[in-house]
Amino acid sequence: MQVPTVGCSLRGVSMSGVGIPPGCRAFCSLSHSGLHCGGRNVQGTDLCYQALVAWAGGLVLPPPLVPVVPVSLAGSTNDTGGRLEPAPEPQRDQTLRQQGPLASPIPAGHPAVPTKPAGPWRDCAEAHRAGHEQSGVYELRLGRHVVSAWCEQQLEGGGWTVIQRRQDGSVNFFTTWQHYKVGFGQPDGEHWLGLEPVYQLTSRGDHELLVLLEDWGGRGARAHYDGFSLEPESDHYRLRLGQYHGDAGDSLSWHNDKPFSTVDRDRDSYSGNCALYQRGGWWYHACAHSNLNGVWHRGGHYRSRYQDGVYWAEFRGGAYSLKKAAMLIRPLRL
Ligand SMILES: [Ca+2]
User: Fold this and answer.
1) What is the 118 CA–ligand 1 centroid distance (Å)?
2) Distance set, CA 322 to CA 221, 312, 334 (Å)
3) Residues with CB under 5 A from ligand 1 (ion)
4) Chain CA centroid to CA 105, Å
5) Residue 91 Cα, ligand 1 centroid: separation in angstroms?
6) 12 lies in a domain?
7) Tell me: the pLDDT tens digits for 213-222?
8) The model's pTM
9) Do the domain assignments include residue 285?
10) 76-116: pLDDT as tens digits
11) Residue 204 sits in a domain of what CATH number?
């Protein structure tokens, strides 16, 4: 891997700046020929590299890789002479297991008794209030349209609408703006509810977002945001996020206030096309700390030219493709 270098236009510019973590100066340095990362082969596995990419956004950049080692694990890889190879798998898993018990399970996707309760409903929360406490596929009325969605009615008081789910790789998420707009997949399986339906839902009032993740060892994690909404299509379904809480690590706030990008609608902050490299639509910045719409690589660690897995960098890193992921929203209770 070539040492990342940005153009000579950066000569004389200090590396310190907004978003540059303390310590980066130790190995990110300027030289007469430009900005180098100190001769280290940092690739996309280095937080400093990621900061460099963000800082130098729009200039000549290497492929859009982002931190693939969670902060909690970064310290365990500092004895590799700068090559930041992934730690041996058994060692890494041990580290993770020490961090605590499993979080809440991912919605199973298949109810014990399939139901299709009367509707259509305003949202899953309304159905729950009406006494429908069985998780399953419900019909929701959004404007003039009726869409099918999975309602998670047992988890933490119920009333959750699942807007995204990955669990078995059965659906191709490398698709176009129009599909991401209207939705695709199956509500009782892998599913993308659709940007327009989610916009319609979240434009009615304040919502919260719950992201549930599970790795291939069965370890779960969650990220909760106490605010979640999308702007209308005219603003490219720009993401508006509230405060993060949880144990997964916050891999979405970096994407706050970013428009949605797909392979055919590049609205990201990177000179190239993040959705093309990462093979899925997302609220890319330059490019991502998370992409739950990437390629569902079986087994976790994957080898790919670009960082295109289903990942949440602060949980298992960008080079680890998660087994399960789900995004659920619910109106905030006043
Ligand atoms: Ca771009």
Assistant:
1) 44
2) 11, 8, 34
3) 266, 268, 270
4) 18
5) 37
6) no
7) 999 999 999 9
8) 0.70
9) yes
10) 333 333 333 333 333 233 333 333 333 344 555 554 444 55
11) 3.90.215.10
